[in-house]
Structure formats: structure tokens, C-alpha cells
Design goal:
Elements: E1 4-11, E2 18-25, E3 30-33, H1 41-50, E4 58-62, H2 68-71, H3 74-81, E5 84-87, H4 92-97, H5 109-119, E6 131-132, E7 146-150, E8 159-163, E9 168-171, E10 174-175, E11 181-182, H6 189-200, E12 206-209, E13 215-216, H7 217-227
């Protein structure tokens, strides 16, 4: 099942950062990994249209976790494109209640209070996932030869999508702004290290992070060993 990757980069509010969404054209439809925030919905829709993805063509939306900058357009896309939305149960509370700290162990109290006011996750953007994916969940039924990998650490329900070709769409497990690195925003460091140990044992070629540029897994492991 060959596929073409369209990277959609959407700015976060207040110029905080840029989030990557990945639209995979399988030839039999599209799978979208993450949706960006609702503040850039018009840009997302233009990018989908430019790639040839119209209503009825989007077979699945996979959310790597529940944070607003990755899930903010999921409810809208489900209705407008007649698609399904998949998310790990560990992050379901974030999208059902509009609380990105719902499944997390910690978080700055001030940031927790300000986040809904600054970034919003209104009732129209909240939803219950259609598919609650667990580790190993196959995506072949949606035209993509890939499976879900549970990668807790950034959040308890963080997942990645690993294709048979060795591409890993990792959400916020890794970033690559200046160099490939583990995300500094980690809720559970022990879980993150366990996720990394597992990834080292898998055949992974290119990593596509939620923020920053793609990189090879070997590049990250080389720099990680040197820094360690």
C-alpha cells in the first residue's frame, strides 16, 4: 500500500510554534494524522483541498494525543468530511471535556487555568472518539499499511503511527526545531524513557514529529547517545 505524504504546517496562537499535520494519500483515500488548532481551520481546509481531499475522501483522522494544537479540528472534520476519528483512551478526557490536562499527572497550576482562556476548546470542538485505539491497532482497513504504537510520556495516551515502510509519525514524543530531541514537555519521564527503549528495538527509518522537521531515527539515536 504505497502512500504520499503531504505535510501541513499550521501556526499556533500568539506565534508560539508551528504544528505539523500529515495527510497521507493512499491512492484509495486519505488518512490525516493530527488536525492542528481551530485557529488555523481555514488554512487546513485549503491544504486538504489542494491535495485533492474532499468530503468522503478522508477515511480516518488519527490523533497522536489530545492537546488542542493536535485535535482542535477533529470534531469539525468528522462532520464536514464524514470521517472517523481515532484516539487512545488515555487522552479521551482531553477532547471530551476540553481539558488537555485531564489525563495528565501534573502541570503548572497557572498554565492549567489560563490555557482554556488563551487557546480555547469550546463545546463545538469537543467530541467523543469514534475509535479508541490501543497498541498494535492496524490501519489496513483504511488503506494504510501501518499500526498504532502506544508511546506514553508526553501524555498517558500519546501514540504514534508506524508504517510498514518504516515511517514513524510520532506526535509530541520527539521534536526537531534545532536538533532531534525528546520533547521537553513530558508528563511522565519514566514512561517516556520506556517508550524510547521500545522504539530503539523497532525498524524505523524517518521520524515525522509534531513540531519541527523530519529526521532519521539513527540521527536521533546517535545524538541521544552522545548527550547521554
Amino acid at each position: 500500500m504505497p502512500y504520499t505524504i503531504h505535510t501541513i504546517r499550521l501556526a499556533l496562537p500568539f506565534h508560539m510554534s508551528v504544528v505539523n499535520c500529515y495527510l497521507l494519500d493512499t491512492g484509495a483515500g486519505f488518512v490525516l494524522i493530527d488536525t492542528g488548532g481551530s485557529n488555523r481551520r481555514a488554512e487546513l481546509l485549503r491544504a486538504l483541498e489542494a491535495a485533492g481531499c474532499a468530503s468522503g475522501d478522508l477515511r480516518l483522522v488519527v490523533l497522536t494525543h489530545g492537546d488542542f494544537d493536535h485535535s482542535g479540528n477533529a470534531a469539525y472534520l468528522r462532520q464536514a468530511f464524514s470521517t472517523l476519528v481515532a484516539l487512545h483512551p488515555g487522552d479521551a478526557a482531553a477532547v471530551e471535556r476540553g481539558d488537555m490536562f485531564g489525563g495528565r499527572k501534573k502541570g503548572n497550576p497557572l498554565f492549567r487555568a489560563l490555557t482554556p482562556l488563551l487557546f480555547g476548546f469550546g463545546r463545538r470542538d469537543r467530541f467523543t472518539p469514534d475509535i479508541r485505539v490501543e497498541d498494535g491497532y492496524p490501519l489496513a482497513a483504511f488503506g494504510l499499511d501501518a499500526r498504532v504504537l502506544c508511546m506514553p510520556g508526553h501524555s498517558c495516551g500519546s501514540i504514534g503511527v508506524l508504517t510498514a515502510a518504516g515511517d514513524l509519525f510520532c506526535g509530541d514524543m520527539f521534536t526537531n526545531d534545532a536538533a532531534p530531541a525528546l520533547n521537553t514537555l513530558i508528563d511522565d519521564p519514566a514512561a517516556a524513557e520506556a517508550s524510547l527503549d521500545r522504539l530503539e528495538c523497532l525498524e524505523i527509518g524517518t521520524v515525522y514529529p509534531g513540531h519541527g522537521q523530519p529526521f532519521t531515527m539513527e540521527q536521533f539515536l546517535s545524538e541521544h547517545r552522545l548527550s547521554g
